């Protein structure tokens, strides 16, 4: 996970830990490791006071990290073009890719019988994903979004998708809460969809969020994380305080969260100048290996020479 990365100002970091210490303070390394937390107890009063000072400093930098991000998004227009960073043209390809990824997973996890499905749209913005995609698959969708004018736009955009009866497809609840503070209702969701927002969370809050969010899943429920992917290491955007992580970086964090990859797929048909995008379906227990009972020899495996 700790491979080289850089920020949008051109600074190079030897690893992710160095970057997070710079951004959040020296206590960040302890917060990402249970072992470090267990060993963090001071041996004397002086150490206790010093640790408290560092922790307070770290808390201040963390608040600054989040407040800068919120301030950036508060200045963005509540429109498809705005939330997609001037690339509203990717909306159709995005929806198409998400649908192709999710549809078979729903059938695999829940079967084809009629079932009342509920989803949570994390970092929902103006309700773009909910309206164009999630409501086609789920009877209820809850939205959680920290930027108030985005969430109000979502309410307006989804007005026709609320309070339409028990078996309809509707936007049910709107939560104006940041992900680092959000805990879902226990056992409510079949799918928790997280798209283009997890980069706002530092590693320790990333892990804490998923650990809390697990309780919100129904049996056989799963997460979908759809996110930009760095080619190597990470890229820190100093403008909106977000981190684009590489695929190995994400996989290391998934392990720390106790999550397993059920399926992964690349998003297609995006402009070449944008980051690559991957979709991960994540579950809380090891997926069963599909086995037909026959061992398949790899295409390029050496064959035995028969005499």
UniProtKB/TrEMBL annotation:
It comes from the Eukaryota. It holds the Pfam family Methyltransf_PK. Residues 293-307 have a biased composition (Basic residues). It catalyses: N-terminal L-prolyl-L-prolyl-L-lysyl-[protein] + 2 S-adenosyl-L-methionine = N-terminal N,N-dimethyl-L-prolyl-L-prolyl-L-lysyl-[protein] + 2 S-adenosyl-L-homocysteine + 2 H(+); N-terminal L-alanyl-L-prolyl-L-lysyl-[protein] + 3 S-adenosyl-L-methionine = N-terminal N,N,N-trimethyl-L-alanyl-L-prolyl-L-lysyl-[protein] + 3 S-adenosyl-L-homocysteine + 3 H(+); N-terminal L-seryl-L-prolyl-L-lysyl-[protein] + 3 S-adenosyl-L-methionine = N-terminal N,N,N-trimethyl-L-seryl-L-prolyl-L-lysyl-[protein] + 3 S-adenosyl-L-homocysteine + 3 H(+). Keywords: Methyltransferase, S-adenosyl-L-methionine, Transferase. Its EC number is 2.1.1.244. The keyword Nucleus does not apply. It is an enzyme of class 2 (transferase). Residues 31-59, 288-307 are annotated as: Disordered. GO terms for biological process: methylation. The keyword Transmembrane helix does not apply. SUPFAM superfamilies: S-adenosyl-L-methionine-dependent methyltransferases. Coiled coil: none annotated. GO terms for molecular function: N-terminal protein N-methyltransferase activity. Residues 31-49 have a biased composition (Low complexity). Alpha-N-methyltransferase that methylates the N-terminus of target proteins containing the N-terminal motif [Ala/Pro/Ser]-Pro-Lys when the initiator Met is cleaved. Specifically catalyzes mono-, di- or tri-methylation of exposed alpha-amino group of Ala or Ser residue in the [Ala/Ser]-Pro-Lys motif and mono- or di-methylation of Pro in the Pro-Pro-Lys motif. Belongs to the methyltransferase superfamily. NTM1 family. PANTHER family: AD-003 - RELATED (PTHR12753), ALPHA N-TERMINAL PROTEIN METHYLTRANSFERASE 1 (PTHR12753:SF0). This is Alpha N-terminal protein methyltransferase 1. It comes from Urochloa decumbens.
């Amino acid at each position: 996970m700790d491979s080289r990365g850089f920020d949008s100002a051109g600074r190079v970091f030897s690893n992710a830990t160095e970057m997070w210490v710079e951004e959040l303070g020296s206590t960040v390394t302890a917060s990402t490791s249970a072992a470090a937390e267990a060993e963090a107890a001071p041996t004397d009063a002086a150490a206790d006071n010093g640790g408290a000072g560092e922790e307070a400093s770290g808390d201040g930098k963390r608040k600054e990290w989040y407040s800068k991000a919120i301030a950036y998004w508060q200045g963005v227009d509540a429109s498809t073009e705005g939330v997609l960073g001037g690339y509203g043209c990717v909306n159709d390809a995005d929806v198409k890719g998400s649908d192709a990824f999710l549809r078979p997973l729903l059938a695999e996890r829940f079967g084809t019988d009629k079932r009342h499905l509920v989803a949570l749209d994390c970092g929902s913005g103006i309700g773009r994903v909910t309206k164009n995609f999630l409501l086609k698959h789920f009877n209820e969708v809850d939205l959680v979004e920290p930027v108030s004018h985005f969430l109000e736009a979502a309410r307006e955009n989804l007005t026709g998708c609320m309070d339409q009866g028990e078996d309809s497809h509707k936007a049910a609840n709107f939560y104006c809460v940041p992900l680092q503070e959000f805990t879902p209702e226990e056992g409510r969701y079949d799918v928790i969809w997280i798209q283009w927002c997890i980069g706002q969370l530092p590693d320790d809050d990333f892990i804490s969020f998923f650990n809390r969010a697990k309780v919100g899943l129904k049996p056989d429920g799963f997460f979908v994380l759809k996110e930009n992917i760095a080619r190597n290491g990470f890229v820190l955007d100093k403008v909106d305080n977000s981190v684009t992580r590489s695929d190995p970086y994400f996989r290391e964090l998934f392990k720390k969260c106790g999550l397993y990859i059920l399926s992964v797929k690349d998003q297609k048909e995006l402009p070449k100048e944008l980051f690559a995008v991957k979709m991960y379906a994540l579950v809380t227990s090891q997926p069963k290996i599909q086995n037909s009972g026959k061992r398949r020899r790899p295409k390029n495996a050496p064959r035995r020479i028969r005499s």
